[in-house]
Amino acid sequence: MQTNVSKFLRLLVAFALWAAVFGSIALLVIGCQNLPLASVSSAPTALTIKLGGWTASPAEQKLLKELLQDFEAKHPNIKVRHEVINDQYMDVIKTRLVGDAAPDVFYLEALEAPFFMSQNVLEPLDAYITPDFDLADFEETLLKSFKYAKHIYGFPKDYSTLALFYNKKAFAAAGLSTPPTTWNELRTYSKKLTVDNNRDGRIDQYGFGEIPELARQAYKIKAFGGQLVDQNGYAAFASDASLLGLQLAIDQYQKDRSSAQKSDVGTNSGSEMFGQGKVAMVIEGNWAIPYLTETFPNLEFATAELPTINDNKKTMVFTVAYVMNKQTQHKAEAWELISYLTGKQGMTKWTKTGFALPSRKSVAQKLGYDQDPLRTALVAGVNYAIPWQVGEYPAAIVNNFDNQFVSALLGQQPLQQAMQQAQDEANQLIKAISQRLDAPRIAIK
Gene3D superfamilies recorded for this chain (predicted)? Predict the structure, then answer.
């Protein structure tokens, strides 16, 4: 135990070199507060376990509270203390693991999973699985993000892929009746949908909303056979194949002038610029649906699977799992909580409102998401989606890519130069950290 903790402490010191905090698509966090749950019973014999995670909205927090209360009612010998950690979640979890104060069960997003799985701080869950848990019911694309060295370390609680959101009124005004099915079509549509009402050079509506982050560009890289990282975990996104995918965004933004970033139109997200009518198309996840329907109730929009690129169907998938702290003294109880939250009954209750998609196929079918007009495209995408993972040191790769790609998008430097610089700086950082730790990296397949 001491060896693992000491190693983990050295890792945290090394992480200070690059301020590694990255928020994904899935981590739209607000505030920071603890939410103690009302106990169903105050019996002195009940054992308390801690559940750590973040919340994206009050509605989500309320739903989880109800779900945990239901768990406690079914397990009167177990109480759950829910700890909401919305500020620098991953840093807090790493620090608490070092101090032997981490939650018994906690959220772990796929992006961070390779590092945690390699450090011997998570409990392998294989031995706890029983036939009635129905492991085969999970979407394999999601499950494999939490497999390492022939073990399963987490079960995904939900997920989202990316889909094309388009404004139906804007399409009709431009004489368009169906969504684009190829990226070339999307580019043509984008030109038609870009509107300058006053003919004064100021665009009132762009055709497409561009999000220049690796999490939203990775599928373009993959469509041309490019890689995000190599088999040793080093950044590899500056290859010729990768640049072909990234050039699509550059050309549309610089040559066509038919796409815009959120900062170009004074908004904070892709969903917001779409909802405000600043863009007619945007690529977003399931999280955008409740936001758009609640915030812009008069908006008429639809979704479609992402257009093919280079004759390839690609999208991204973002997921978060429940994992068990290896140091917990209450492993049996921790598994009871994980198996309930990711079981068919618990997952049905968790995803029934539609703010997240169930990672179990049977639950998705039961709730009808594969037939939902707005969610069909998102559910279909999971079969060919690329998991959002970039090795053990994601911040080194993601931060360098995002910084340099924005520079290229704005025309401040050539794309090839920007990506080579980002790749070199990321790999120098990874090499320095690995040498300092003298620890092996995960081989990325």
Answer: Periplasmic binding protein-like II
